[in-house]
Specification:
about 25% helix
Length: about 110
């Protein structure tokens, strides 16, 4: 499942970019779990809305996806070309770096139509 949040990733405005972000909430995350997705990719830095509307929760969608269900999060994806061409279905391949002991990695995403 890929999301286009239109969250401009501009390193020139890093503090504005990193302070808050649009994204999905826990209810949408649970719905996607029930749909049996295997990964969520987005053009923002955290998939989910930040700050969370419930101040007692910190990154609950990450916990739901990664910890409870093994669903991968791919963040900061460049989705403009797919959105501009209205590409909604495609085969997706992602080749992460093989880093021993790491919990994340940059990689090479490929959308194949």
């Amino acid at each position: 499942m890929c999301f286009k949040e239109a969250h401009d990733f501009s390193r020139r405005e890093y503090h504005r970019y990193s302070a808050t972000e649009p994204g999905i909430g826990l209810e949408a995350g649970q719905f996607l779990v029930e749909q049996k997705i295997v990964m969520a990719c987005c053009d923002n830095w955290g998939v989910e809305v930040v700050p969370n509307p419930d101040e007692s929760l910190v990154f609950p969608v990450h916990q739901l996806f990664l910890v409870k269900h093994g669903i991968y999060n791919l963040e900061n994806m460049i989705t403009e070309e797919l959105a501009a061409e209205k590409v909604y279905e495609f085969a997706f391949s992602y080749a992460p770096l093989r880093l021993k002991g790491a919990t994340g990695s940059p990689g090479n995403p490929i959308a194949i139509r």
